[in-house]
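2024-03-11 09:14:02 INFO receiving multi-entity request
2024-03-11 09:14:02 INFO entity count = two
2024-03-11 09:14:03 INFO echoing inputs for audit
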Amino acid sequence: MGERKVYLAGPEVFLPDAVAVGERKKAICAAHGLVGLFPFDNEVVPVEDGPPVSLLIYRGNLDLMRASDIAILNLSPFRGPGADTGTSFELGYLTALGKPCLGYTNDPVDYVERVRRGGPVTLDAATGYWRDASGLSVEDFGLSDNLMLDHAVAMSGHATLRRDARHDPLADLAAFEECVRLAAMMPHP
Amino acid sequence: MGERKVYLAGPEVFLPDAVAVGERKKAICAAHGLVGLFPFDNEVVPVEDGPPVSLLIYRGNLDLMRASDIAILNLSPFRGPGADTGTSFELGYLTALGKPCLGYTNDPVDYVERVRRGGPVTLDAATGYWRDASGLSVEDFGLSDNLMLDHAVAMSGHATLRRDARHDPLADLAAFEECVRLAAMMPHP
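2024-03-11 09:21:47 INFO inference complete, emitting structure
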């Protein structure tokens, strides 16, 4: 029974010190008997006259996801009230593959509260929906993001972990480490 | 050989007239010999002491995606420079299922240009990356969103269709209709 592999998804790949953050995540995994797989973004070697770098990264990430046994996703808000679109894509991909997905966010409030930070959110008495300044309804299910994301994570056994680390949402790893502890306790497949 | 089913993903489910927009999308599909499946969001009937409504919607959407032969996704920016997180999740889920995915956006510019609308984006000479005001790198691959989304769509045969309909990004259906035309030409499985 080999060590289980954990795909490490999240927008920290966009930090200036992305590689160092990835190494810290891998070290936490190793301390719990797991092998962390950090996205390929920073390790692609372009080939002259070869496929575009972005396609190499795409293929590399799909390969890592397929090779993983479990995933831990950083669903902290990124350039808006919601999670990173790439991380959201990966949660969907992993869910369809049947990989157990643990998720965390370093912004602990409900999604509707995060939308409210960007402008007024008012109750539409006719429908019972909350609406933003554009009239678009705002999900108010007590979840941390779009319901597809929250329920995909919850179906693996644990609701998205929420922690207030808004001072450093992409690199604070306390909630991540809690996910690693939960991953280490998951039964081997 | 029955009519093919097309899953219709996008944040227009949050419009006040979501049901009407869904009906227009289904009518365009029907005019091209396809059956449109609009997300379940607006059709869930809560059951007393039953599962939460959000879980019913989640399950309903997964069922529709699995039942579909093709998907068309509205990847227009939503509450920020990137696509809706729920739609991004669904693109990942459909990709892993091997469903051909067509995508469109009603904001035609590259992702880096959309980030620039929200604040300065500057070149980090040391690394060659563009960085936003927080120092986070901004993908600059000539794509319309995170590379995972663009390449997932492109692998189905057509790059994300870009059209300037920023006056009505969630309900303008010209780019959608072009996707339906492309879907109708796809070979039967």
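2024-03-11 09:21:48 INFO post-check: Chain A has a mean pLDDT of 95.
2024-03-11 09:21:48 INFO post-check: Residues 113-143 of chain A form one domain.
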